[in-house]
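Many introductory courses stop at the sequence. We go one step further.
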Amino acid sequence: MESHKSVSQSPGKIIARIPYFSDLEPKIREEVAEVAIRRSYPANYLIFNEGEPCAGLYIVEDGLMRIFKTAWDGREQVLHFVGPGQTFNDVATFDGGPNPASAITVEPTVLWIIERAAMQRLLRTYPSIGEATVRVFAARMRHLIGLVEDLSFRSVTARVAKLLLQQRDAARADSVERPALMTHQEMAARLGTVREMIGRALRALADIGAIRIERHRIVIVDRAALEKKAEL
């Protein structure tokens, strides 16, 4: 299914949510919106592959993206998920290299695309964009350092426990719906392991009474126990 261009309402408001452009005057944000292309995609649509030439900076207006790398044996490592008001493919946009990872829609998603040449012109014209770029990349670096720390020092059970706590806090509930966590395979891709290990980790957490596994959700029974496991 091919993407299609559609008409957006209040494009300046969409652009204002992006850290690169939030310090710009409203009139200039409208100028930025004029060079952006708005497209809608269905769920499970591959936007681009790792290693392909960079098209530009992508902005999520609505929906959810999964950014991932693929190993030689086909296993995936999810780097992060990108939601409304966030950007992706920033690195390739600024350094001119190929896409460093692949991007696929998790659900129907609306994106804005600012071509690399247009983004470079904006960067040269408005110094505040450059200052914001430093802040954005610093935050991304902290995220990647945290990802390396988890993969290097935490067991799979600890990583699963940490993910459940993050999902629970995001939902502000004492249970995590299965769709929010997706499948065991997708959890494995996010946590840098295989789905069999995810199943073992969930059973281990259930055995110590930290969680209760139901058909469509995972109930956090003992948050303190789950937090203790997440620190191991």
